[in-house]
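Support request, please re-run this one:
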Amino acid sequence: MSNTTGSAFSHLVDVLARLRSPQGCPWDREQTHQSLKRNLLEESYEVLEAIDREDLSFFQGGPRGASAYGGLAEELGDVLLQILFHAQIASEAGWFSIDDVVSGITEKLVRRHPHVFGDAQVRDAREVETQWEELKRQERQGKPEESMLGKVPKETPSLAYSQLVQERASRAGFDWPNVEGVLEKVSEEVAEIAGAPTPEERAGELGDLLFSLVNACRWMGVHAEDALRQSNARFTRRFTTMERLARERGAAFAELPLAQKDALWEEAKGMG
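Re-run finished. Output below.
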């Protein structure tokens, strides 16, 4: 960390402490860990959106660098603020400080990378992952035994949660032998939806299908949450393009017959 970075970070910590002080801001003083949960989640998703947006700009031939990623820098700052907010609240309660947060993660990174900061040898990224899990296991020794799935946060979005529990089950050796079996399971779940006689059973079968599709994503090296978020963005972009094209041609999109909407959809697809 450069002196400039360290000074900027310290200044931000001081600003937040001032905002939380009796002479500070009433709104900031009222915040708690619970009240800020939604803010942290929303700011994190805005970071993901900024990454996707800037990646798209690059792949469509736009600039990449400081100008293209200025939005990402701002969103990362908003997430950093949330981290500091929680640390400040904890410091006021006498639990821990931002210094404890920073030193804790620093020590963990050094401890979990003995191939960089020690004498351990690894050949590739997969061996790094195996070493990481072994070090985590060693750190847990002496602590009460818990399920490998127990540390997956329950508030994780459902697609991401599914992928995390599947990854951990796989580490325990509970997995399909190949991707062909996974894809066959997807087809099996699709067939079972049609045969489900009640809404409750159909909901169960649809849930099983989603779980199987996430498993297929995992086997193919795709993050299911990212894939669906990008598909949502692609659909939204094309739909708004259809609306714009209809307006430019003097028509209200909602009033067009389906055949014309389909034609606009194909046109919008061709535009990206």
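The chain has three domains: 3-111, 146-222, 226-270. The mean pLDDT is 90.
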